[in-house]
Amino acid sequence: MDIWPYSVDLGRDYEVEESDVALDTFETAQKERLWTRPMIQWSPDIVTNDKDPRKLKISRALIGTYGAGQLYLRSRYPNVRVVGHILAPFADTTGGSFDRSRISNRSCPILVPEDEIGTLVVAIGYEVPPEHAFEWTKVFFEHIEAERYVLLGSFGITEYQSADADMENVSPPLLRGLDTLHQLPNEIQHLESPNIASGVIAAALAHCIARRQHATALLSLEESSMGSSVATIETLTALHEGLNRIAGQAAKLGVDVLAQQLREHLRLGHGKTLLYI
Q1: Is 228's pLDDT higher than 70?
Q2: Which CATH class is domain 35-276?
Q3: Coil, strand or helix: which one is 176?
Q4: Helix, coil or strand: residue 199
Q5: For the chain, which residues make up each domain, given as ranges?
Q6: Which residues share a beta bridge with 112?
Q7: Do 114 and 80 meet the contact criterion of CB atoms below 8 Å apart?
Q8: 50 pLDDT higher than 60
Q9: CA–CA dist 9, 210 (Å, integer)
Q10: Looking at the predicted structure, is the pLDDT value of residue 10 above 70?
């Protein structure tokens, strides 16, 4: 049984509600001091859907949440084009750079991988507070439409309740998943009750359930060190293998190459220092 932290009323017309929302541009919001919700800053050369100039259509959208999810996506896709940023007042973000070599590790860039046509990558480099998760997700879906959404995140070992009575046997790599259409591959175990998804991942899943859209969440177990959760190479390896599983393809990138790209990413100062490789 899935436990969702957001209730869903299927009787409401969400599409009509969303079409009535008029977003100010980043510059106007700053000038008028009306910047009270997240917003998207597109690259000047981005091409959007002709029917709705605010919305970008794509085959697959990958969203990596703050921590392991974001770090994994930034490392897996080093060769990208920056097409936008999701700015958030609670994260104290400002306009982002469209030069991939100058992306701040506290930003949330929207990236297009050069070697994967039809894929959009959103790497959240700041922590979205639970009380702002719904509004962040709402802004994302107002501007980006995909045939499938993949959400990548992690959970601490102290938060996880395993069916295995002996928790000493629980350690990374360990991956759990949720799917709005119940189409998880057999190799990926469903997130057991009473564990729940939270934050941006929970809000995005609830959004997609209400609209019968396909979204998959992959959650990888983190290590615990001195009272804090720490992403390790095993944590990211589980996300790597899970993403390849749901894509129905063999890994294009070996784990050893992924580890090297992680080291390079950290050396350039773009990632978290709490990573053991």
Answers
A1: no
A2: alpha beta
A3: strand
A4: helix
A5: 35-276
A6: 81
A7: yes
A8: no
A9: 7
A10: no
